[in-house]
Amino acid sequence: MPEPTTPLQIADYRRLWLARFLATMATLSLVVLLGYQVYDVARSDYGMSKAEGSFYLGLLGLVQFLPLFMLTPVAGLVADKYDRRHVVVAANAVDCCIAALLALLTWQGALTLPILFALAAAHGAARVFNGPALSAIAPNIVPAPLLPRAIALSSMAWQSGSMIGPAAGGLLFALSPALPHAASAVLLIVSAALVAMIRPVRAVHEGPPVRPWQQIVDGFRFVRRERFLLGCITLDLFAVLLGGATAMLPVFARDILHVGPEGLGLMRGATALGAAVVAAWLAWRPLENNVGVKMLWAVAGFGAATVAFALSRNFALSLALLAFLGAADMVSVFIRSSLVQLYTPDQMRGRVSAISGLAISASNELGEMRAGAFAAIMGATAAVAVGGVGAVVITAMWAAIFPELRRARTFAVQYNALPEQDRERDPA
Predict the structure, then answer these.
(1) How many Cα atoms occupy the beta-carbon half-sphere of 269 within 13 Å?
(2) All structural domains of the chain with their residue ranges
(3) How far apart are CA 126 and CA 2, in angstroms?
(4) What pTM was computed for the model?
(5) 190 vs 188: CA distance, rounded Å
(6) 63 closest CA partner among 120, 5, 108
(7) 288: which DSSP letter?
């Protein structure tokens, strides 16, 4: 058979792409509406003020992050030790149960803040196992020369699902609050079935057996040695930690822009639309030159767009700014994901993907906590604007602390130029 010229010519990759798209639609709809329901229940059923409701939105991010923080080392090792398909299917099954329970309790009008926070924590635990295993499957089924395009296409699946899922969820929520959660449960079942159809992709281990704890430590050592990779991950971590506006979107939808759950879905969808357009472009024309500088400018643009969104009071302008914000973030995601997958040996991909996922989750969930706490003190507008300024400042600092980012021209050149001792690979 002729060699494939695009990842989409590979049947297993098509299944993986569709599974990721459907699961993203389901989980992003679930998470966005979970935030809206927390804020709405806090305001309506518990009589909380805007500031108190905003603080609880921040707590929701923290509740989702704690399982990720505690379980990430274990999740990465599980993805390297067991069949990655089975890990993804199990994680999807847990999320399916969460969605079904949310649908039932919403339909019965039995939601409370403790229940919502418990389900959010369970979703965080499921996601920590899903992420590393799902990310590590693509390099097992796609030839290395096609991997950058596969990563861009995978990002497009994620961003498209992020765009369609919340928007559709908001519209279904307006018809019946339980309906979007029921739809999410069905989509997760289909996604799990598609992953199960992929051929076995258990990682291949080389060398003598290594104790589990040592294998976990080796993953962190690998990331620490690769300065370009370390700079990319930590730049994204701190920039999004400060600049993320996602947690405050329910506040903007309900009390600032006055567009309700339908508008909330569109705002989340606008961010994903901008990212999906860029992901589609990168799948056709992957970045090849000056990748480090482009990433730095993209993160700075992300921060600037965040400030502008905080100050906007026009819904159409807010949607446009969110789309630009998502597009800028996609450039950083593409570069970081390519580095993680291309320059990590297969027997370590689960662990390194878990570390990268932990940084992403820390920036998102702890960023939500940061935004919620700031909003309780200074209001949602000021909290988002200050965070955007912080993201720009962090970008300038990282350009100085990690000159490798500014000097990087291509992925290959960056790593071929490393000293031999810095290119050691895990012996596990």
Answers:
(1) 19
(2) 7-195+211-417
(3) 39
(4) 0.70
(5) 5
(6) 120
(7) -
CB atoms within 10 A of CB 210: 16
CA-atom Rg of the chain in angstroms: 21
Q: What is the DSSP string of 31-65?
A: HHHHHHHHHHHHHHTS---HHHHHHHHHHHHHHHH
| Residue 424 or 217, more confident | 217
Comparing 262 with 102, which gets the higher pLDDT?
102
| Out of 21-30, 179-188, 215-224, 407-416, least confident range | 407-416
What is the rounded distance in angstroms from the CA atom of residue 391 to the CA atom of residue 383?
13
Which amino acid makes up residue 204?
V
Query: Is the Cβ–Cβ distance between 371 and 245 less than 8 Å?
Result: yes
Question: Going along 98-192, which residue ranges are E strands?
Answer: none
Joined together, the tokens standing for residue 106 give 């919403």
CA nearest to 280, candidates 155, 421, 137: 155
Supply the DSSP symbol for 418. S
DSSP state of 345: -
Residues in Cβ contact with 130 at an 8 Å cutoff, skipping those fewer than 6 apart: 23, 87, 88, 91, 92, 95
Task: Report the CATH architecture of 7-195+211-417.
Answer: Up-down Bundle (1.20)
Q: How many CB atoms lie within 10 A of CB 50?
A: 18
Q: How far apart are CA 83 and CA 57, in angstroms?
A: 36
**How far apart (Å, rounded) are the C-alpha atoms in residues 265 and 164?**
9
- The yes-or-no verdict on residue 159 having pLDDT over 80 is no
Tell me whether residue 113 is exposed, middle or buried, using C-beta atoms within 10 angstroms of its C-beta: 0 to 12, 13 to 18, 19 or more: middle
Helices assigned H by DSSP within 176-259: 179-196, 212-225, 227-243, 249-251
pLDDT at 207 (0 to 100): 47
CA-to-CA dists, residue 374 to 244, 245, 248, 299, 380, angstroms: 12, 12, 10, 22, 8
Helices (H), 244-348: 249-251, 260-284, 291-311, 315-342
């980012």: which residue's tokens? 405
One-letter amino acid identity for 318? S
Tokens of 366: 């702890």
